[in-house]
């Protein structure tokens, strides 16, 4: 297992290096002065220009420039935002908690609803129930996320006026950020309106999280159903049924834990798609996360924000993908057997 973890760590470093290389080449083709694209300083002084040349080795060859670029970016120096003239790393870290909160709630909804429906679709003998569940998942998978988000906003936000359609919280509530997670910060706040603020933050989360949860929900249902159908035919399940164990006990203690293994693996494979959907959802609902921040930077041609946003999002996806793969192999005995056999 140690050799496997070392290989995964090497994979992370190698992928990061390739990603930085792509960003370095892309920066060369920005239609602005290279020093400006690297630092984001609008009106640099002579001293700042000299510092930029030394930091990024602009007078050196391509290899020296790439090494300097990689060292600078991976050390956390992402330059200044051209629009706000604030450090990009500061804006990125401020936007990340909002994206994490939205993604976590969406993943929680998809899992809590998708797994039971997948189990029901696999165990139900009623063809109408099975076909209805699969039709719902196929429809959810086919609906464009931007159309779904706009439709939910129109129905529940504009026409019925049940739920807010933009932002994270009503501006009337003054909640000091502690963790950056609004649901947590409202409860940690010493304000007398913290419960009302928590409720308001929860209401703001409903529409964007449901919109974002639809795609992983459909995947969870279909993968759970397929895995359960396969597992329920295994000899150890038949043996448990022969011993007279209750169906609920068999499903919860023996079948479902094994069925969740492929669900975990497939969720790791779709992290990139999930992140791209999250960016669209954040723009639709004016959610102040990394997605809307990055899209705003693209519209404003904020080259340092584009570089920093792409680097930050990509590194998070790579890290989470490798982490899920490690957890999958640690949790799945068959994967460990194949792993050790390969070694």
TrEMBL record:
Keyword flag Membrane: yes
GO molecular function, one term: dipeptide transmembrane transporter activity
Cellular compartment(s): Cell membrane
This protein's name: Binding-protein-dependent transport systems inner membrane component
Topology in the lipid bilayer: Multi-pass membrane protein
GO cellular component terms given for this protein: plasma membrane
Residues passing through the membrane, by range: 9-26, 102-123, 135-158, 201-223, 267-285, 305-327
Domain ABC transmembrane type-1: 96-328
């Amino acid at each position: 297992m140690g050799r496997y973890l070392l290989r995964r760590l090497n994979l992370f470093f190698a992928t990061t290096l390739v990603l930085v290389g792509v960003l370095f080449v892309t920066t060369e083709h920005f239609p602005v002065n290279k020093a400006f694209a690297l630092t984001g300083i609008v009106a640099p002084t002579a001293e700042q220009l000299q510092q930029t040349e030394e930091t990024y080795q602009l007078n050196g060859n391509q290899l020296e420039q790439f090494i300097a670029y990689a060292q600078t970016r991976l050390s956390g120096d992402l330059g200044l935002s051209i629009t706000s003239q604030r450090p990009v790393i500061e804006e990125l870290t401020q936007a990340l908690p909002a994206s994490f909160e939205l993604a976590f709630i969406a993943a929680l909804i998809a899992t809590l609803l998708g797994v039971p429906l997948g189990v029901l679709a696999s165990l139900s003998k009623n063809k109408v129930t099975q076909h209805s569940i699969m039709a719902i998942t196929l429809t959810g998978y086919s609906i464009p996320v931007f159309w779904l988000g706009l439709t939910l906003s129109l129905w529940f936000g504009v026409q019925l006026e049940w739920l807010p359609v933009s932002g994270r919280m009503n501006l009337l509530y003054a909640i000091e950020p502690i963790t950056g997670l609004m649901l947590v910060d409202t409860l940690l706040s010493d304000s007398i309106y913290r419960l009302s603020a928590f409720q308001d933050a929860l209401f703001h989360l409903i529409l964007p999280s449901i919109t974002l949860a639809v795609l992983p929900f459909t995947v969870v249902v279909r993968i759970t159903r397929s895995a359960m159908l396969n597992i329920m035919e295994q000899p150890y399940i038949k043996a448990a049924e022969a011993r007279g164990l209750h169906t609920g006990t068999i499903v919860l203690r023996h079948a479902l834990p094994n069925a969740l293994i492929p669900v975990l693996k497939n969720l790791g494979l779709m992290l990139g798609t999930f992140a791209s959907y999250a960016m669209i959802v954040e723009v639709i609902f004016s959610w102040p996360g990394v997605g809307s921040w990055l899209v705003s930077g693209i519209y404003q041609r904020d080259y340092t924000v584009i570089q920093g946003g792409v680097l930050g999002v990509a590194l998070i996806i790579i890290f989470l993908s490798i982490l899920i793969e490690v957890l999958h192999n640690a949790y799945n005995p068959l994967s460990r057997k194949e792993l050790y056999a390969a070694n």
